[in-house]
Each structure stands twice: as structure tokens, then as C-alpha cells.
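[09:14] KT: can someone run the structure on this one? pasting the chain below
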Amino acid sequence: MDLSFFTRSDDVAGELVPTALACSSWSDDQLHGVAVAGALARAAGTALTDLGRDDLSPTRMSVDLFRPAAMRPCSFEVDVVREGPRICLIDVTLRQAGERVARAAFLFLKASATAPGAVWAPPDSARPTPPPLDVAPVSDEPRVPFVHSEAGWSQNFSEHQNASHKESWNSAVPIVAGEPLTPFQAVAATADAASLVTNWGSGGVEHINTDITLAIARLPVGVEIGLSAIDRVEADGIAVGTAAVFDRTGTLGTVVTTSLANARRTVDLGRTNYEDDGTRRDVKPGE
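[09:31] RB: done, C-alpha cells below
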């Protein structure tokens, strides 16, 4: 299936042009955070490759979504803040028409042998797991996310508009048409969906996230990524949500998002379902 969030500009080198699949549910002229985070990660990964540092692994991404990114061409400024034997810090700024609309800081570290001492960690039985294979067969093709709530696992979003604990299982979409999706791009883009599993309740999604902080100990195996809500704290319209990030072999790390109440422009997922080609379909009463 030929789906992507961006195409390369024919006019400006390095510029990316959003496709319809990058459009947010908040506005018809706004990019969603999945596309923004994925594009920022692509720029950072390209910079690391240009440095010849294939010995380093991505371990942290901190994204600030301080201005709505429009459905317009995007350019990227990259700054290598520090490169050392075991560490590399790269900052990326997304600009549209000369204005900064988002920024991200990336940390890459060099893997080594595990330290010998014993340290506490949750038992495997407490870790999140993917949906059963008969529900979500292994796939590297983009498809509608599977969601889990008190209704069980399904791709029918209208079943999950409730106040119960949520998880999602995502087959990531390529960032740029004609380019293979890397596991790093997949997990970076999917991290924005932590806002969905932590902020989606009985009234829909009533908070819009302003940042994403992803921390992982390893890259995912493939491009299928799971998210499971761990915690949520809200006070005076400001919410902090934390989710575990996992793949079919186990937990990778966590993602934290901070969000603001946006109830006047709620995303009502109880009335919307999605198709694998990216189209949205309104759900009729009783359907």
C-alpha cells in the first residue's frame, strides 16, 4: 500500500510536502503530531548517518509542539550540539514559511555490555503485550491501529470511547513516499499517539498535547509499535500522561506527553472510524 505522510518537494531541496494522511483531526489545515515527530526523527537520523555514526543508538527524543504545524511545506534545520565517542546530541527545528513551528532534541548513545549487578524491574507478567495474532497478524504494512479498552481489542474506534484503561497497537506509516520506514522513525512517530491512550475518555479526546518525550533502551524489532497507558495526572486543565512503549518482543521504554484541555474542539472518536487507506468515515447512530 503506497501511503506516506510527506512527499519530497520538487522545488526546494530538503523540503517535505504533507499528504492528506498527515492531516490532524483537530483541523483540516493542521498536521498531526505523528507526522511532525516522524519528520523530525527522519532529519535527526539522516544527520547521524551523515556523521558516519552507525555505532550509536537513539535513546531519547524530546519534541516541543509550540505552534500548530499547517498543511504546508516543511523545512528542517539541524544542529549537531555535541558529538563524542559514546554520545551525540542533535537538535532539529521544523520551519514553515520561515517560522519555527516545532523543535526536537535527540540523544544517541553507544551501546555496551550490560552491567553485572542486579537491579529491580517489573516482572514480565506486569508488562504490556500485543494483541493476539488472530486479531492482529504480524504486518509491516500500514493499517488502522488496534485499540484495547474494556471492550477488548478492535479497530472500531467507536467501541472505545469510554473511561477505561487504553492500549494501542500501531503499524507505522512511512514518513516520506519512496523511502523505507526505519524502526527509529516508526517508534518516534508512534510516540505522539501516547496522547490518544492517555487522554481518550468518555467524551472523546479533550486535550491537545504540547510535547512528546520518548525514552527507549533499544530500537523496536520491525515497525509495529504498542502503547499502553501507565499513568495520568490532571490539574486545572493541564494533563501529564505516561505510556509504556513495546513491540512483539517486549518493552522498549516510555513516552510522556503534556497536554492542555481543548474541550471546545473535542475530537469525537465515537463517531468516526478509519479505513486502512487513511480515509475517515462517520459512524451512523446504532452502527
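[09:33] KT: thanks! The two ends are 28 Å apart (CA to CA).
[09:34] RB: yep, looked fine to me
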